[in-house]
Amino acid sequence: MSIRYRFGLVVILAALTVATLAGARDAAPAEVLVYGGTPAGIAASVSAAKAGRSVVLVEPTPRIGGLMTNGLSYSDFRSFESLTGFFLDFSRRVEADYRARYGADSAQVKDSFRGTHGEPSVNLRVFQQMLAEHPRVRVVTGQALARVELSDLVLGRRRIVAAHFATAGGPQRIAAAQFVDASYEGDLMAAAGESYHIGRESRAQYGEPLAGNAQGEADSQVQGYNLRLIMTEWEDNKLMPVAPEGYRREDFTGILPLFASGRLKKVFSPDRDGIYRAHLMRLPNEKWDVNDTPRAPVRLSLPDLNDAYPDGDATTRTRIVREHRYQNLGLLYFLQNDPAVPDGIRADARRYGWCKDEFVETGGIAEQIYIREARRLVGQHIFTGNDTKNAPGDARTVLHRDAVAIGDYVHNCHGTGRTGTRFDGQHEGEFYHNVPPYQIAYGTIVPQKTENLLVPVACSASHFGFSALRLEAVWCALGQAAGHAAHLALERGTPVQKVDVPALQRRLHSDGSATLYVSDVPPGSQDFAAVQWFGLRGAFHGLAPDGQPQPRPIGSQYTEAFPSHMADLAAPLTPELRARWAALLPKDIPAPEAATRGEWLRLAYAARSPR
């Protein structure tokens, strides 16, 4: 078997012995424990609290918000119409924050791009405010998972009883009834003994043409990581970088021939003629989100360094993070200061510096690095490229009646390996594959064995499938679903594997979260829940054939809405569509008589049996 699975208990991020942990002090229990203060973890916590549950949100670092408060301010999605639920609420609050502080017509509001391009400090403030609105959520930072207590395995299933954490004050134990692993690494899921995958599957494993290595075979390579840097040209707020610890100029002189040959012309650029990708849309207050540049000669992502990270202990992970910081920051310091760098290039590099008002505690640099991929759960449903294929002859992707979230992006991998040197080579395993908006089945976050665990971030997907899920907006939607599912499991006394998915979908629709991409009926519309309900029955599949034009770009990766994904409720209801829709109704709902799509749908929705 070419793919690698891991089983059993894993000690994560702590050098504590079991004997020491046995004496851990008990903290106040909660109904739901969420591990990982990522955006998905915050979404899960807020959703469970909305349902009346007590929640403890545990974050191993000092700062909640994951990458959205650690440098990833340039949120990845395509059309605004795909943003619903928690992420839409969050982005609207970010925009409102700028409006309140600077005015509705300010540059800051415009640059926030409807609140999706917030500064890290603003994103952090908004997340803190959202959590503060729910006193049932207790937030704990600086506590790393050490191990979990499990019940005995019965008929192939078991439960998590409590989680143990390493803290500055000694080991701590927290008991809960339901658990959500919202960490980027999947540490809680692994500690619970769930099976997971690290690396790339073969092409044959799930029938994915872009899977595997150049020969289509499986391997253990993981998509590359890098720092997301927040930088500015504004002199009043600029802090010039200093040499990282252990800096040696000879580690970076290999870049000089690329400038001499003209392969590289800039340091900061939105395109591959530079190294540090300053995204074309500026952030508010003259800041830039700086990232790895796809297919450039020199990269910030370092896929040759991070394969050991997902399963690594604390020492291994610390070493890998330190090496990423050294490479990303040392190269910039070299380009800004070394006399061997051409004057024009050095001047270009020195235009940018850290922001004095961001990451104040850590010298203007985010503490966390961008973990694009680590462990991936092998759950009840494995999300693959088959989930993003068009349904036969249809503009829409295949229908998932058990969907709990949607996504709207491309399959995107910055590379999983490297040939040659850091300055004379290229990334392997890099791809960018366009697909229509897609649905995500509930089983994607549901493990096989653990009855009280949900995994919205290190979720169940192939390497290729995960490349379309690893987006904060998608993870927020899955976190929101996990929070509501945890509540239903508690309310009905069922394992998460047996949660009533239609009931979960109704809760999500009431909470403004979509389970099908419909471009012209947004959350807040009186028809949103009805459209989402009937869309899950297949009502909007087959309305437009495959081969539709792509939506028009509105800047960078962002586009207008997908025109073939409208409900078009004002349109006349043709006899053919009337007959097809009538066949999709539950047996207890008589087919309405109506002239338009919207009138028919409203009558059908009103007649459904409440459950």
Task: Describe this entry's structure for a reader.
There is one protein chain. The strands form six sheets. Strands 2, 3, 4, 5, 6, 7, 8 and 20 form an eight-stranded mixed β-sheet that branches. A five-stranded antiparallel β-sheet has the order 11-14-10-13-12, with no helix packed on it. It has a three-stranded antiparallel β-sheet with strand order 1-9-15, with no helix packed on it. The chain is built from 16 helices and 22 strands. By secondary structure, the protein is α+β, with helices and mostly antiparallel strands. Helix 2 links the parallel strand 3 and strand 4 (55-59). Mean pLDDT is 94; it is low at 1-21.
Describe the SSE topology.
Blueprint (H helix, E strand, L loop, with lengths): L4 E2 L11 H5 L2 E2 L3 E6 L3 H12 L4 E5 L25 H18 L4 H5 L8 H13 L4 E5 L2 E7 L9 E7 L5 E10 L5 H5 L4 E2 L5 H4 L22 E4 L5 E2 L16 H6 L15 E2 L8 E5 L22 H24 L5 H7 L3 E3 L20 E2 L25 E5 L3 E11 L2 E10 L4 E4 L11 E2 L8 H4 L5 H21 L8 H10 L17 H8 L17 E3 L2 E2 L15 H10 L12 H11 L4
Parallel strand pairs: 2-8, 3-4, 3-8, 4-5, 8-20
Antiparallel strand pairs: 1-9, 6-7, 7-8, 9-15, 10-13, 10-14, 11-14, 12-13, 16-19, 17-18, 21-22
In angstroms, what separates the terminal alpha carbons? 45 Å
Count the helices. How many?
16
Strand content: 15-25%
Helix % is: 25-40%
Contiguous low-pLDDT stretches (5 residues minimum) are 1-21
Would you report the number of β strands?
A: 22
Shape: globular
Computed over alpha carbons, the radius of gyration is 24 Å
Oligomeric organization of the protein chains: single chain
